[in-house]
Amino acid sequence: MPLVSMRQLLDEAAKGGYGVGAFNVNNMEQIQAIVGAAIETNSPAIIQASRGARSYAEDRYLYHLILAANELHPEVMIAMHQDHGNSFETCKSAIELGFTSVMMDGSLKTDGKTPNTFEENVEITRRTVEYAHDRGVTVEGEIGVLGGVEDGHGAGGTGLEHLTDPDQAVEFAERTGVDALAIAIGTSHGAYKFSKKPDGSVLKMDLLIAIHKQLPHTHLVMHGSSSVPKELQDIVNKYGGHLKETWGVPVEEIQLGIKNGVRKINVDTDSRLAITGAIRKVFAETPDKFDPRDYLKPAREAMQKLVAERMREFGQAGHGADYKPLSIEAMKEGYASGALDTRPSLATK
Ligand code: G3H
Ligand code: 13P
Ligand code: ZN
């Protein structure tokens, strides 16, 4: 089966009441880890590449590696997603390459750190939706801005400066027709999200619930959702790393989000920690080794373990084959006929 639409994976997740992890990749081992975890847990898979990943790997390599995964494991439903597209052109080039889903992050200007105005965000997202839907491709937008700048996508600060306004979220969904909506509830990218276990003063789950009440049929997306587990921090530090004590988003908060409309959960940092810990361990314990396979294999296994755990925790495990995949051509027809129109004013159920 060819690559599938992310919209279909999220629609099915909404019907089943579960979430789908979206895991970032930059190389072959990370793609294999995600697909391996999807096979292990019988899950659908969202594989996403940032602009940095596309540039690091030369995106055609990533595309063909994902196609290879698809050819070897046709039973796994894979959506290929552009993470944090910063312009219409970035999204267009991803679609031309064969991505089945794009994020137009119009919450920020093309520099990835200066907040856009609401009108600018609506305009660029609406234009991307028009282009993408004509080609059967899914679009995720973002309203409100994440904090931090660790990974080059965020307005700095604590994450509380540009929280999503629920009324604006409704207007944004109505005027853009996005398939999925990322919201800002206090998270940020990278390892240093919170200086202690987050409570409601810094991680605004109440706001998420309020947005879901106003937009019950919109698929919500949580960015910056790595949990930064202490065990992974400890492994990195035990073998020579220097991570400062830090907290991520607890899995139980993500699960609360999933009960309240969250369908896509973005995870990158946890994979990075798992990989780095495994590589450091090999280097520290067997300094005589120099074959990359000796450390990349454990790194791949560590990431697969992490991804499989998240797939189970998000509830997508077991849902890999319980519905028939639609072609991108069928999605294109669905958008053209209006059957896939997401505008809140049209929502019936
Ligand atoms: O959005 C942040 C992701 O972790 C991707 O990070 O831009 O360093 O590839 P990156
Ligand atoms: P983390 O840095 O928390 O893994 O977030 C990843 C992300 O949001 C990618 O878009
Ligand atoms: Zn993100």
Give the cofactors and ligands.
glyceraldehyde-3-phosphate, 1,3-dihydroxyacetonephosphate, zinc ion
Over the alpha carbons, how many angstroms does the gyration radius reach? 19 Å
Helix/strand structural class? alpha/beta
**Largest sheet, if any?**
8 strands, parallel, barrel
**Which strand-content bin applies to the residues?**
5-15%
Our count of helices gives 13
Query: What letter string, H or E per element, gives the SSE order?
Result: HEHEHHEHEHEHEHEHHEHHH
Globally, the shape reads globular
What does this structure look like?
With 349 residues, the protein is of the alpha/beta class. It has 13 helices and eight strands. It has helices at residues 6-16, 28-41, 51-57, 59-72, 88-97, 118-133, 166-176, 205-214, 230-238, 251-259, 269-285, 292-314, 328-337, and strands at residues 20-24, 45-49, 78-85, 101-104, 138-143, 180-183, 219-222, 262-267. The protein has an eight-stranded parallel barrel with strand order 1-2-3-4-5-6-7-8, surrounded by ten helices. Helix 6 (118-133) links the parallel strand 4 (101-104) and strand 5. 51% of the residues are buried. The mean pLDDT is 96. The site of 1,3-dihydroxyacetonephosphate has 14 residues, from strand 3 and strand 8.
